[in-house]
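Colleagues,

Please find the record for the three-part complex below.
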Amino acid sequence: MKDELSPLEIDALTEIFNIGIGRAANSLNKMVSQTVDLSIPEIEILPNKDARLKLNFAETTEISAVSQRFEGDFKGQALLIFTKESGLQLVSSLLGNKIPLDALSELEQDSLVEIGNVILNACFGTVINFLKSKITIEMPEFIQDQIGNVFVYSSENDWSLYIKVKFALPSDNVEGFISFVMDITSLEIFQESVKRFVFGITHNAAN
Amino acid sequence: MKNLSSEILFNSLNKLNVGIIIIDQNSNVVFSNDWISQHSVYQQEECVGKFIGDLFEGYNHSRLSDACQNALTLGLPTKLSNTFNSHPLPFYHKNYIGNAEYLIHQQISVKNIGSGDGNSLCEILIDNVSSSYRKEQMLKKLADENKQQQVKAEMANSAKSQFLANMSHEIRTPMNGVLGMLELLSSTTLTKEQQHFSNLAKTSADTLLHLINDILDFSKIEAGKLEVELIDFDLRSHLGDIVQALSIKAKEKHIEVILDDTGIDQNMVVGDPGRLRQIITNLVGNAIKFTHQGEIIVKAILTQTMNSKLNLEVMISDTGIGIPKEKCLTLFDPFTQVDASTTREFGGTGLGLSIVKQLCRLMKGDVFVTSKEGKGSVFNFNVILDESDKQSAMLPLANLHGCKILVVDDNATNRQMINKQLSLWGVAVIEAADGIQALDILESNDEHNFDLIIIDMQMPKMSGDMLCKKIKENPNLKTMKLIMLTSMGQRGDAKYFAELGFSAYLIKPVISSDLYHTMEIILDNGGALEKASPLVTKHYISSLKKVVPNNEGKILLVEDNRINQQVALGVLKRLGYQVEIAGNGLKALEALKNEDKNQPFELIFMDCQMPEMDGYQATQAIRSSSDGTINSTIPIIAMTANTMKGDKEKCLSVGMNDYISKPIDHKVVEYKITKWLNQDLNEE
Amino acid sequence: MNKIILVVDDSMVSRMMIKEIIKNHQPEAQIIEAANGEKALEQVNQDSGIDIALIDYNMPGLTGLELFNELEAIIDIPKRALLTANIQDDIRDKTLAAGVTFLNKPITEDVVASFINS
């Protein structure tokens, strides 16, 4: 890792994703006519294997995840990860808790993909808007597997923009994790764009 | 593949089984395929060039239009499911175009497909998901129905419980009155005729109570509401009590009831003594009913199971009329008896054995029968008990070890039984089948210095008392210590046998511990033997063992029903206690507040169902009292007509110490009072 | 003539962006900035003479709406705006009821400019 981001740059990154998540909450609100609050308690850039550790799941934990690949200025994969239970809980909650959990699996996949899509899109959107990035983004895919297998796809040298997301719903709280996984070159380009953005503001403000 | 002719590409896109619309940066339609025209009001040519919001109602301000904007300006792909989009675009099932009832449920994907010349294009893909939607709806419906069923079942269940509780109470209350009053009546001065009528009434009432209990039990079992207790109790003593109580009936028919508990090596166990009594009483009761001569043997064995529990196996064999083989299996089904004539001849509801089976099952065991018509039957049941950590002190066996005893009884089984038990205690036993044989043995051999002779009373040719006289006439033998075992207990027996020269007399069937203590006392030849007047009996032994109950205590009886008041009052007064009555919870609290401090209440008998303030509320009030005007730790025993699952917990959870069920049994009352009044003495 | 403008947002970058816009459209304005509600209250009293307040909704400690409530007890601010990405119905209703304007995040120069100039 060449240059770490400065506190101000981390501040910018946080604000960008906060706004993204806020807009996602807004969209989810409209979708389910329920109060949905999203917040980001944690945001960090670290090597992928450290991000994996941060998740604190046993190797065999079943997870449900939505993935969207992207390429262009930087390339990688965006993941929204839940434990299988949290995923079911989130979907059940958003569907008004009317369907018993064991009958939910049929719908779970489609619903979770849509929800994940809304959130990841919102994040992509603010990143593109603020950082003026040029990236193309793929359709969302559903992954259900043990956590150990999900993190195997990427190489040891990949890095993660790791974001913890809290969903506050009227009935309960659910926790999910967003990870923008990129190789080191992409990460450096990404960080460059953040620095440029912050420089632009401070530079202008100074004038 | 870029070389594929545009015609091929066009056709493949056109003929796709999903709808495709492509719009440009201004949201004007650039392409729409066959599917679109087949499922909408438009022909293909009609769409091109038009603003999509004008073509399809509901597009403007929808999530779809947001998604298209996102795709066009930011390149973001979006998936829109049917679940979160309740207003589908106007696409219909073929043949029903324009019919709002036939709108298709849609799943829509939106993505940016770019274009060579730098203009953004957005592709909208529409998939028909009506069939999965139907599945979804069905699932929801099933879930709802399921929930409704659950609620219904729960309501029915609690209605059942309520009914059983009410019925229990309604029935038991007057029964308590009838039995209680008859009991009190018989203890007053009656003419012989009156006593006779009173006895008949009591027998009928007992039978009625028995039937009612059977029916109520059966209902509870059916409703799954019967619970099994876990109490520490003395197994051997309990079996002895049960069998003794049953033998009274058997004696009237001149049938012996023999208890063989040599297979039990632990005294204290944990289980439900009440239900155990119910099972044995039922089976032995049946045996007595269907046996006209001979004997009934109750043999009990206690073994360890693999998971540190205790398996109690009891075999009840009789020499009765037997049961046909085919009937053996269905015997334990409810409402069956061997045949209709049995009911007429022997009575009964046909519920007894099925309840026995259910009770055994409740206690993780089972019951079965083997029988030979004309010869007799063997009922065999087992239940699982728990180990008790309250092992009562097993008396040292050293005392009897090495003793020599002569047993005289015409009944071979009896002799063998006693022999077996005495051998376990290390005693050497010689048997004699009648008086003549006994005298032969005694007179012939001086080596046989017997420490004790046990003599049965009822023997043909020479009865036990005659044998005793003969022994006492013999100068060599007259110092021999004799124990009399008799089936019939009559008034005046003690004096009679004492005068004959017996040191002790016990009533069959004998409990091993009674036999043991009797032998102990006699062989000890000390103060205990002297004090036994006129001789050692079961009662004498009991009095040595038990702590004398403190009959000076004052008891508060809280009961609203006047008849029940009288019944309980009678029982308590007969036991020698002073009693004050309060008609409901409120009055009870007042009585406690105003009690005479020189003679405070030591215990409360509290009815559960009362007006104004019931037993539970009153108990809670007493327990939570902290201003010192009421003794908040006074022992409270509940009297309840309900004996269902959860009742015990309810009593205990509000702070009651114990409970007895109505109709109240004076022995149980005595036991409970003794237990709770002597609590201090029992604690170490 | 010189307006006094209160800017409260936990993101420094966000404050910088707002300040930049203000500088572009009202260069003479005096800016009081704070990173959260508590710090904002420390700097404000009844004599502060604040004309415009731009406050972020989502902050640690007091939310933007709560901060507006607290300020109301101290000082009268004629122009008040709440900045947020998430416009939930109940918050929107409370905001409008309090007479506070709603500004969406990400903020655009036009929207902020027209607000402070109105």
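The longest helix of chain B spans residues 130-186.

Comments are welcome before we finalize the supplementary table.
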